[in-house]
Every structure is written in structure tokens, then in C-alpha cells.
Design goal:
heterodimer, A: 671 residues, alpha/beta, FAD/NAD(P)-binding domain, five-stranded parallel beta sheet, 28% helix, B: 144 residues, 42% helix, globular
Chain lengths: 671, 144
């Protein structure tokens, strides 16, 4: 006979404010098989856990239901407590009466009744639970970091410095990411490249880091501690071992008028190119789309001038396979481009540019060598209008969120402009100034007070050209709420920060969750900000949400610490929630009829054929067998099986059937 | 039937919809208490005979929800569930169960608001359809 203990948590007032916990405890006590039912203010606290442990020992409980928060929150806590009291941890279940009940319903009988239903359902389930033994798996102590921007660089260095091998995969020809494009960085105005490039070189020289630049993840299989990654090394059209990075080829290449990605389209580059002078690795790549040889079959000038014969026109993409134990996603962000703002003439007027383009104008390594000159005619702009929140916080544009970095970089842009063009007049149109951060508010004040940047609180409605000037029509909502018209020479839009174009596709390869804007979802918005819902895959930087450099670096170090913690153990304990095929005594051996429909359904190739032979070696039956190392416990095979011969531990037929019946109050017919 | 409060069972996957429903709670969004959740590892695990079992046990409506297409934690479980649902719809009709009593949806771990909306809409919808009265007959047909 089952002896189930039910433990109902008040969660302070989080549950007890809307659910009558006394009534739940009283009703639970009446459920057949329940030997013990109590409520307590904080079940997850030490005394709360002690209540559970004592009851297991004193009442000889055979199962435990903790009615509290989501199992995603505290299931491990209570399973550990049960184990400490000598009860198999898989005989403990959580009844989620907080996230799925008290927090989402108003106070009343219906809410309490639902809580009782949930408890009854889980009591019915736990009665069918079986004691299970965890599965131990080895950990491959190699991390793969995807994305070589500042977040990926930081994560790689931290993991490598902890003594573990790192594979860093970057899709562009060089690491560095958006940070390498920036001129100066707020709130200190130190040069971005000056602080970044030493880190890039460190990555290249670190003995524990293997860098795959110009490479992308092809696929990822496996599970925490035991992933198998396939990485596509895109053809550089170059033998990297022979290339010395002398740069002769890039100087001689005749196709020289290709918009440079690094200069955000403001500068030009040849078809064989290194994205920027400090690139790591400092080896060129041929852009086959624009190369004369690939387009017409003639040229091969780079091949002729190369002193080490490193050019390889026939090079193919190469697939590299690697075993990794953990993955850090650090793929960064993009900004909104294109015809997103027809009313602002973005994409139509050459002198309406975005923030990243302004960074290149202000950068000493940029197309104007750091002089602020407008793209159309190269003149120094006398009046510059900066438009903050261009797209951000604008539900009409489909972007409700704040892009977070724009208030600060707009202040920085206006300041840099003023530092370079002393007589210039910078205006900033803004909605609110969000300068939360160490020394951030002071920085914005400095722009206003010391550099005389004119801040106008209001939105810009339209930008159009008149007599060689850009007319910015807006409104000043602060003083007189008057319409405003400014004749500008250059307009800089702080366009919204968005997810990388390939973010969704990559998330699907890795099976990580993402939000409606394709930013990767953290496992918990507050308490697990660097983990994903997929064990062993961590997040760093702006791929999770728009972030500035300090936050990206902090998160990257956080992710690296998580990886180091994972690698500090040589074996991982995995939950044994996997499929098993029926086995029974002769002459049946197994109810499996060997149709292998399960094999076709399994996404992990975890189902093998097993031959059951008699003593004389004669083949009696061929049946399915689950490889416990490969099975991930999805249970798709279970629903497929025609003879109900395959079942999944933890979500077995018996368990879920009992749950359905109990939830609908059909009682203990099967008990 | 103004006083009718339907009993709705939600069969959801652990990775997307269960987590999405957790987020609804964490965000303190409110929804109708007539829906209770049963957790599965994946919608691919859901044997649709369980849905009939729920109807035979007195459920008035059912929600099945998992990860969006291509987002399945296990790669393809939700596709199997979708295919199974297409076949199962015809069977529902054959058994005399109004197909509108089953709501098949995708709710991701980040869609707390969508979960609340799905529950409220389904509850409203089932209220409109009235109680499911055919369950004894289902038992007569051998659905236990």
C-alpha cells in the first residue's frame, strides 16, 4: 500500500494569498494512499526540507508530492532532500500550484479547487513512480564558443585560462565583432580597438584555443557533456598555412569598388580582402561573388603576385567534426537597416546614416580617417541631427523593446562630433534618456553641459531634402510643445538593435528557445540568465538581448564560469528518464513484435535491434532495444508503438493515465 | 447554460509550453482556472488515445500544445504530434466528438501571454459548446 506524503507550501504569500492552503492540506489527506499531509510557509527553506525528511523517516513514506512552485524551479531541491532521507529521488514529484495556479488566478474557491485537483493528479502519478537509478555519463572537457565578438572572445579566454580546450567559431573572416567597428566607447571615450585588439591577439596565441574563422556551425548533436559538432570551414580560397599575411594580393586586386562590410558600406574594399588591418587571423579571403576570376574565368592576378603561392581557387568548404562538452552562444546582434524608415529617407538620402556608419566616420581607421565628413559630398557637416529610438520602443514598427545602448552611444556620437567639429551644432531628438549604469548619467550630462549638445525631447515625424539640406521635422514636447524644423547636413539614426539575421536557424540547430524577436531565451529571466533551457548550452552577450560592452563581458565571464563548473567534474549524472523496451520471462521474452516503427520515429538513432537467442544459439526473436547513452527521453517512440511495448521512465503509460483519471476525478479505479 | 464551467485538460510539452505557462505565472498574467496541465516530455510522447481517455473521463475540452515547428527540443517530436493530430481529427468525428473541443497549438517558452490567451479563448469556446455529454457512450465503445 502506498504511503504518500503531501507537502503544501505557502511560498510566503505567493500561494496562500489566493489558494486556501489549509483546505488543500485537509483535502489531500483524504486522498486514498496519502499518509501524511501538511502545509508550511516556506517548504524550500531548511526547516521546510527538514519537514519532508523527517516525515519520510518517521511515517515510512513511499512517495512524496511537494505542492509548491514549478518543477523547473525546485524539483532538484526536493529530490535531493528525499535522497538524503533515504527515499529514491524519483519517487518525489512537484505539484505546480504557484506558476500554474496561485499566480494566474484570482482568490476564490475555483482556484483552491484547482490546486486540490493538481495535488490529486500528482499523488496519482507518484503512486505509479518507480525507483530509478541515475545514469552516469563522461564529460568531454572541450568548449565550443560560437561568435568571436567581445562576448565570445571573453568567454573563450576565461574558459581557456581555466585550463580547458576551446574551439572558437566565427563566421566572418576575422574575430572582433561589432566592437572592432566602434570608434570610441562610452562612458570613458577610450578607443575601442585599443582595448579590443590585444584580446584578439591573445585568442590567436592562446595554446588552449583553436580558432575557426570564416566558419559556421553545420550541426550539433548529442547532449550536455557529449555534443558532436560539425563545423563548416568556408573556403577562403587560400592556404592559410602558406599565407604570411603580406597583403600584396589585396593591393593588386583589380576589383576594388566593393562596399566594405566592416565600414558599414561607407568605404570600399577589393575582392580579396582582410576586413580591417588588425584582423585576427590576418589572412585574406576571396569574395567569390565579386572576384573577376570567379565571374569571368580570367584574372588570377592575386595568384601571380603571391610570393608563397598560397592562393587556392579550387578550394572547397571543409567540414570539421569535434566532440565538445559545452557550447557558449555569443553570436551578437545587428541593427535595423534598409527601407525600415521611409519617412526618414533612410536608404534614400545618402546623408541619413545609422549609428554604426557614424562609428566608422568617427573612427581613425575608417573611410575618412576619423574626420566627420558626410557621405554624399565629403563636406564637413555644420549641423547634425541625431535621432534616438529610431524603431525602438515603437510597437507600430513591431519593436516594443528598448534597444538599451542607443541613448549612450548617441550622447557619445554627439560628443565626438563636437570634439572634431568645434563650431558644429549637434541636436539629439529623444523620447527618454536611459542612462542607468556606472558613470552613464554623468556622461550624458557632460554631453549636454560641457559639449553643448542640444537635447530636444520629442519624436521626428519626417525628414526630407530641400536645397541641399535635410529638413528634420519634429516636435519639442517639453517647453512650448511646438513643432520644430531643423535644417541639417547629416542625420544619424540610432536604429533599433535586432537579432542576427541567422539567429533563428542557429537556434533550431541547437534546440535552444528564442523569443518573438529571435533573441535567445535564458533559462530563467532572473536566476539563470546565462543558461539556456538546453543543458550544456550557455549564452553570452547581445544574442540574448541588446547589451553594451560591460554587460556582454560580464555575461561572457558568467557563461565561462558555468562551463568551468561543468568541466570540474569528470562524470555527469543524468536523469534516467529514458525509454525502455518490455522484457519478460520466456517463452514471450518481450511483447515487442519487432516492427521497428520506433526506430523510424527516433530522432537520436537510439533504438537498436537485439536478437534474442536460445541456449543453442537459435534465433528466437528480434526485438527493439534502447541505447541509454543516446536516448534523450522525448518519448516519441512510446506514442508510436503499436503493442505498447516501449515505455518511458518518468512519463510511463501508467503514470500519465493515472494523472488523466485523477485530474478528471475518476478516482482510484486502477489503484 | 450560464453556470457551466468546463473541465479542460492541457497536454503540454516540458520544454516550450510548460515553460511558457510558467512564464505566464512569473509575469502574473491571469487566466481562467478551468484548465489544468499535464506535463509530457514532448508532444511527440502524447498518445492520442489519452485524449479519448480524457473525454471518456468527463473532460469538456482539451488543449495540446508544444514547441513551434522547427523549435522542438527533440528536433522532430512536434512534427510527429502534428501528423498524428491530422489523422486523429477524422477519428474524433467518427466517434461523435466535436473536433472543436480539441485545440492544437504551439506556445514557446517565451510566450507567456500567448498561453494566457490560448487558455482564455479555449475556455470561452468550450463554454459556448456546452458540456461534453457523450462520455458514457465513449466508454461503451471501449475507450477506457
Amino acid at each position: 500500500m502506498a504511503r504518500i506524503g503531501v507537502f503544501i507550501c505557502h511560498c510566503g504569500e505567493n500561494i496562500s494569498a489566493t489558494v486556501d492552503v489549509m483546505k488543500v492540506a485537509a483535502e489531500a489527506a483524504k486522498i486514498p494512499g496519502v499518509a501524511h499531509s501538511v502545509e508550511y510557509k516556506y517548504m524550500c527553506s531548511d526547516p521546510g526540507q527538514q519537514l519532508v525528511k523527517n516525515a519520510i523517516r518517521e511515517k515510512g513514506l513511499t512517495g512524496v508530492v511537494v505542492a509548491a512552485c514549478s518543477p523547473r524551479m525546485h524539483e532538484p531541491t526536493f529530490r535531493r532532500a528525499c535522497a538524503e532521507a533515504g527515499l529514491n529521488p524519483f519517487l518525489c514529484e512537484m505539484a505546480n500550484i504557484r506558476e500554474h495556479c496561485s499566480w494566474v488566478h484570482e482568490k476564490g474557491d475555483a482556484t483552491t479547487d484547482k490546486a486540490i485537483d493538481i495535488v490529486r493528479t500528482l499523488v496519482a502519478k507518484v503512486k505509479k513512480n518507480k525507483a530509478l537509478q541515475p545514469i552516469k555519463v563522461p564529460v568531454t572537457k572541450v568548449a565550443m564558443v560560437i561568435g568571436g565578438g567581445i562576448a565570445g572572445i571573453q568567454a573563450s579566454l576565461d574558459i581557456a585560462n581555466a585550463g580547458h580546450q576551446v574551439i572558437l567559431v566565427e563566421k566572418e573572416p576575422s574575430i572582433g565583432g561589432h566592437m572592432s567597428q566602434l570608434s570610441e566607447t562610452f562612458p570613458t571615450l577610450d578607443c575601442s580597438q585599443c582595448i579590443l585588439t590585444p584580446r584578439m591577439v591573445e585568442v590567436a596565441q592562446h595554446l588552449n584555443i583553436t580558432l575557426f574563422s570564416y566558419a559556421e556551425l553545420e550541426s550539433l548533436d548529442g547532449f550536455i557533456g557529449n555534443f558532436k559538432a560539425r563545423i563548416r570551414k568556408k573556403a577562403r580560397s587560400l592556404d592559410e598555412k602558406l599565407c604570411t599575411g603580406c597583403g600584396l594580393c589585396t593591393q593588386k586586386c583589380p576589383s576594388r569598388r566593393i562596399p566594405s562590410e566592416f565600414d558599414a558600406g561607407l568605404g570600399l574594399r577589393p575582392a580579396i580582402y582582410v576586413p580591417f588591418p588588425q584582423a585576427v587571423p590576418n589572412k585574406p579571403v576571396i569574395d567569390r561573388e565579386h572576384c573577376t576570376y570567379y565571374r569571368t574565368g580570367k584574372c588570377r592576378l592575386c595568384e601571380k603576385v603571391c610570393p608563397t603561392q598560397a592562393i587556392r581557387f579550387d578550394q572547397q568548404d571543409e567540414i570539421v567534426e569535434a566532440d565538445v562538452g559545452a557550447v557558449v552562444l555569443a553570436t551578437g546582434f545587428d541593427i535595423k537597416h534598409g527601407d525600415f524608415f521611409p519617412e526618414y529617407g533612410y536608404g534614400k538620402y545618402r546623408d541619413v546614416i545609422d549609428g554604426l556608419q557614424f562609428e566608422r566616420l568617427a573612427s581613425a581607421s575608417g573611410p575618412t580617417l576619423g574626420e566627420i565628413r558626410r557621405p554624399s559630398d565629403g563636406r564637413v557637416p555644420e549641423t547634425v541631427v541625431f535621432v534616438a529610438c529610431a524603431g525602438s520602443r515603437d510597437p507600430a514598427k513591431g519593436i516594443e523593446y528598448c534597444s538599451k545602448i542607443c541613448c549612450m552611444y548617441t550622447a557619445k556620437h554627439a560628443m565626438l562630433y563636437k570634439h572634431k567639429v568645434h563650431h558644429g551644432k549637434p541636436y539629439v531628438f529623444y523620447m527618454d534618456i536611459r542612462a542607468g549604469g556606472k558613470m552613464y548619467e554623468e556622461f550624458v550630462r557632460r554631453a549636454m553641459e560641457e559639449d553643448g549638445v542640444q537635447y530636444v525631447r520629442g519624436r521626428v515625424s519626417r525628414i526630407f531634402e530641400r536645397g541641399g539640406k535635410l529638413v528634420v521635422k519634429g516636435v519639442d514636447t517639453l517647453l512650448a510643445a511646438r513643432p520644430l524644423e531643423i535644417e541639417a547636413d547629416l542625420v544619424v539614426l540610432a536604429t533599433a538593435g535586432i537579432a542576427q539575421p541567422g539567429a533563428e536557424e542557429l537556434a533550431q540547430k541547437l534546440h535552444v528557445s528564442y523569443d518573438a524577436h529571435k533573441f535567445y531565451a535564458e533559462a530563467h529571466p532572473k536566476l539563470r540568465p546565462v543558461e539556456t533551457n538546453t543543458a550544456g548550452i550557455f549564452l553570452a552577450g547581445a544574442c540574448q538581448a541588446p547589451k553594451d560592452i560591460p554587460e556582454s563581458v560580464a555575461q561572457a565571464s558568467g557563461a565561462a564560469a558555468k562551463v568551468a563548473a561543468l568541466f570540474s567534474q569528470s562524470e555527469l549524472v543524468r536523469e534516467p528518464l529514458i525509454a525502455v523496451v518490455d522484457r519478460q520471462a520466456p517463452p514471450v521474452y518481450s511483447s515487442c513484435v519487432g516492427c521497428f516503427l520506433c526506430q523510424s520515429a527516433c530522432p537520436y538513432q537510439a533504438i537498436e535491434k537485439e536478437e534474442i537467442r536460445g541456449r543453442d544459439g537459435q534465433l528466437l526473436k528480434t526485438v527493439a532495444k534502447v541505447n541509454p547513452g543516446l536516448c534523450q527521453g522525448c518519448g516519441t517512440c512510446v506514442a508510436f508503438c503499436r503493442t505498447k511495448s516501449i515505455d518511458i521512465q518518468g512519463f510511463s503509460h501508467e503514470q500519465v493515465h493515472a494523472e488523466v483519471l485523477a485530474l478528471l476525478n475518476r478516482g482510484e479505479r486502477d489503484a | 447554460m450560464p453556470d457551466f464551467e468546463p473541465k479542460i485538460v492541457a497536454f503540454v510539452c516540458n520544454w516550450c509550453t510548460y515553460a511558457g505557462a510558467d512564464l505566464t505565472g512569473t509575469s502574473r498574467m491571469k487566466y481562467s482556472p478551468q484548465v489544468a496541465i499535464i506535463r509530457f516530455p514532448c508532444t511527440g510522447r502524447i498518445d492520442f488515445m489519452l485524449l479519448l481517455k480524457a473525454f471518456a473521463s468527463g473532460a469538456d475540452g482539451i488543449i495540446v500544445s508544444g514547441c513551434h515547428p522547427n523549435d522542438c527540443h527533440y528536433s522532430s517530436g512536434n512534427f510527429h504530434a502534428r501528423r498524428r493530430w491530422i489523422v486523429f481529427r477524422g477519428l474524433l468525428d467518427f466517434l461523435g466528438i466535436d473536433v472543436r473541443r480539441v485545440q492544437f497549438s504551439w506556445v514557446s517558452a517565451a510566450e507567456g501571454a500567448k498561453w494566457a490567451q490560448l487558455v482564455n479563448e479555449t475556455a470561452e469556446h468550450i463554454r459556448g459548446l456546452g458540456p461534453f455529454t457523450g462520455y458514457q457512450r465513449l466508454r461503451g465503445l471501449g475507450v477506457e
